[in-house]
Amino acid sequence: MIKVNFLITQLLFIALFIGLLCSSCSKNDDDFIDNTVITEPIKQLPKINVLPENDVYGYVLDEELKPIEGVVVSDGFNLVTTNAKGEYQFKKSNKARFVYYSTPSDYTVNTSDDRNMALFYQPLNNSTIPQQHNFFLSKLKNKEEQFLVYAIGDPQVANDAEVVRFKEETIEDIKQELAKSKLPVYGISLGDVVADKPNLFNTMKTVLGSTAMPVFTTIGNHDKTGGSPAVPRNSLSFESSFGPLDFSFNRGNVHFVVLDNVVFKNDTDYSLGFSNEQLDWLEKDLSFVSKDKLLIISYHMPIRNSSFATRSRLFDIIKDFKNIHFFAGHTHYNENYIHKVNGIEIYEHVHAATCGAWWKSTINGDGTPNGYGVYEIDGTSIKNWYYKPTKLAKEYQLRLHWGDANFGGQYGVYTYGKTSRTLIANVWNADPSWKVEVFMNDKKLGDMVLNSSLNTDAWSLGYHLGVLNRNAANYTTTTKHLYTFEVTSPDNTLKVVATDRFGKIYTQDLITTSLNEAIGY
User: Fold this and answer.
1) I need a labelling partner for 516 at 20 to 30 A (CA). Which of 35, 89, 426, 496 fits?
2) Which residues form the Calcineurin-like phosphoesterase N-terminal domain (predicted)?
């Protein structure tokens, strides 16, 4: 990560700039670029022959100022690649706010000086004068074939107290996990960094960037601001803190894409979707990517079971990739959904929120603990993924209840509506490949069955509605991972064994009857 080098180069540039000011009267126009806005410090570099129609240009160079060829540079609308001299140029869109590059897989992710937030962009100005933007990258010593990705859904902080909880619970947990890892780790925030509080953007940028992993950021619906009954919300405040909304980067044999899929109609009403302009950009971006790469596309709102206007075009653009995963947040519940499109399976990972039920407890509305997703990348495949519950062991992957148990308080009591012989397992990161078995005295009784008729978690409702008296419309969350089994002798010692798609085994023999876990750690 180039931080110190930038500082040194900045000082050199300041000295150079002062020298140019002092001697400008005696300089010929050919000796330096008179009417060009240079927003990134440079040493003496050859002047780029900019075509008359272009107004954004620059170099992409390594630490030794050697050119890097083939780097994709964009303004969010146009995309070009650097030539053998490390040069790029194009005419910017009048809608563009940034110029940025797609970090190559064999170079480090640049981060800001004071935070470990990915810094791959520079702001454009509104000048009609051509502007030069140079980028400097540092070569990796070894290519990263193996690394981890942490997917962080919905911090959604609304005040300083919630920032403190995110910092002391989520971020502290991430730091502890990073300390154990021998592999590189990258973070992707999946949107709703704040809860309609743009004044907290920079604070959250500092908190998100306080770990040892570089973090990329997605925009969510609560990150958009302004608007009126006749004017949609906008992303200007978010962009001022976090940069472009649609971008890509490369790590190892993986191409990552981050997209904004929140479409506001006015200041309150929104839906999910991608504009044709966005998909034009995506199509161009993917044209530079080998189709044997693993493709991971992140956005805020899940697209499963949706019918937005450009849906078919999105899937058509990515149809040549054989290994695709989608990352989303937004729902405040956990779900693994499998799209079957164009003869392939695309996994959409809908991540529970780090804030859970809006920081009112330690759980999401579906009973999933506050937490984040962890993905182990090996080459072009994800060899393992799991949900890491905040401040709890990663082996904690399921919770057990009896079907007739009552949960609640003075504002109401909730139950699963089953019998005293019905064993219920909430297996929050399950997908169709998981196997959930029941054992009694170490003898297998049978397999638990995903019960689609159970679509809310009575334990979570008991706390959020029955104890806290929260709004039922917001806190009655869909639950898609409740398994049931009828036990003939419920008084015996029972154990549930859940085996994930990778053969990892998680066990639970504690039947949860108390709400204490939801109340606090």
Assistant:
1) 496
2) 63-135
